[in-house]
Structures are given as structure tokens and as C-alpha cells.
Amino acid sequence: MAICYVYTMADHIIIAHRGDARHFPENSWLAFHSALEHGASYIECDVQLSADLHPVLFHDRDLERLCQQTGAVHDYEYAELMTLSLSYEKRFGERFRENRLTDLVHLVSMLQQYPGATLFVELKRISLEYFGVECVLSHVLPLLSSLQDRCVIISYNFSALQEARRKGWKAVGFVTDQWSTLNEKRIRELAPKWCFCDYEGLPDESLFYLPGTHIAVFEVPTIELARSLWKRGIDAVETFNIRELTEALRHG
């Protein structure tokens, strides 16, 4: 999962997956700014460390799809990464050829201008595997200190969430591709504020409830699917089509 924004209307929550990703390269400054300007109340980003341990916002395990470049984020120092074009050429052609990657520092700075927005930060597994949980947390959490009351640390990596809680982080969220793999005992021990699950990993027609935990589902492309999930007890849906779904919700 990557940067995403949550838009709230009544009891319905829509999460913009990796910013306004249908209209701008995902996890970019442009995508985040557009989502916030369109009224997003919650945002979520993917974080990886560069070779010199600088937190950069990026989803994929390699740079090929979005930057047309070989290697992974951790293969490059921060200054080198900032010279790459974050253009997502396959989708947008040459339109964003001059666009660059964004780092966590700049996103935090942006959020100072939107005091009503809550931030989800996903710690990507590739960085946790490459650098270790302690290293990643020690370089990410201090940058988020000013947002502690409106920031949720999320990850597929259960150990990373446990360590974040031990370090005093108030709100964490677990991410899974399959609902059936959730371990109820571990979930109770962690007491996550959020749980994110892939739509394709949900059981058919079940109602959902996790005491004390908000449930979000990704990737949800249509308002019709969103409505059906809300009826089943899902609290939030995550989509690349943030503008389209929120507009559809406004008009009933």
C-alpha cells in the first residue's frame, strides 16, 4: 500500500491510495497536494530508506515502473534519487518528466499547512528487510514527532509495529493481503487502531468487526463496491480514484 488520503462524508470514509494517483504519479508531492486540496482528511504514504538512510516516499521494490531506472531505493543515496524522474511514463507519457521523488521531511512540512489531516505512514517491507526494524524506525519516527497525535504507523511487518509501540508510538495499523491470515491473539496484543486488507483477500459476503479497530479495504475502484463494503461493516475504502468516488458520494 502506499501514500493514501481519507475523505470523510457522514459515516463513509474513502482513502486516496498514494495521493491523487489517478491524475499524478503516486507518492509524489503533486499527488499529495492535489488530494489535500480536494478535501482529503487522512493521508497515507509508503516510506523506504535511501542508501544513506534518508526516508523517501516510494512504494515499489524497484525503480523500473515509476522511474524507468534499474535498482531499488536503497541502492542509491538521497542526492542521486533526487535526480531521477518520477514520471510513471507508461501511464502519463512525458507529462511529468521533470517530476522528482518526495521525501518524508517535505510531506511533514506540507501537512503543517493542513492541520485537519491525519497521516498514515506505511513502513515498506523491503526497507525493513534490508536495514532492519530498529534502523528504519530510528530514522522515520523522529521526523514524525510533530504529527504524533495525527499519525498512524502501518505495516505488513508485525514486529515493526510492536517495536513502534514499545517506542511510545500511540497509533499503529496492521496490513494484510488475506483476512484469513489475521491472528486474533496477536491482534489483541497489538491493539491496532487500524487494519488494512486487500479486497481480493476478503471472504465472500461476511460481516466484519474488530473490537477497537477500524477496518480499511484496498483497492476499491467504484462507488458501488464501496457502498457494498460499508454495508458489511468496513469503515474505510481505499482507492486510486479519490476525486471520482468522493464526487459520486456527494451526489448520492
Topology:
Layout: E1 4-9, E2 12-16, H1 29-37, E3 42-49, E4 55-57, H2 64-67, H3 78-81, H4 89-92, H5 104-111, E5 118-123, H6 125-131, H7 133-140, E6 151-155, H8 158-166, E7 172-176, H9 184-190, E8 194-198, E9 214-218, H10 223-231, E10 236-239, H11 242-250
Parallel strand pairs: 2-10, 3-5, 5-6, 6-7, 7-8, 8-9, 9-10
Antiparallel strand pairs: 1-2, 1-3, 3-4
Helix pairs in contact: 6-7
Describe the structure.
31% of the residues lie in helices and 21% in strands. The protein has 252 residues and is α/β, with parallel strands linked by helices. The chain has one domain: Phosphatidylinositol (PI) phosphodiesterase (TIM Barrel, Alpha-Beta Barrel). α10 links the parallel β9 and β10. α6 crosses α7.
- Helix/strand-derived category reads alpha/beta
Please work out how many helical segments DSSP would assign.
11
At CATH level 3, the topology is: TIM Barrel
Over the alpha carbons, how many angstroms does the gyration radius reach?
A: 17 Å
Side by side, the strands of the main sheet go: 1-2-10-9-8-7-6-5-3
CATH-derived architecture: Alpha-Beta Barrel
- Helix percent reads 25-40%
What is the CATH C level class, in words? Alpha Beta
Mean pLDDT: 93
Order of helices and strands: EEHEEHHHHEHHEHEHEEHEH
Which residue ranges are poorly predicted, with pLDDT under 50 across at least 5 consecutive positions? 5-10
Q: What oligomeric state do the depicted chains represent?
A: single chain
Strand content: 15-25%
| Number of extended strands | 10
Global geometry: globular
Number of domains: 1
The description of the largest β-sheet is: 9 strands, mixed, barrel
Task: Calculate the terminal CA-CA distance, rounded to whole Å.
Answer: 28 Å
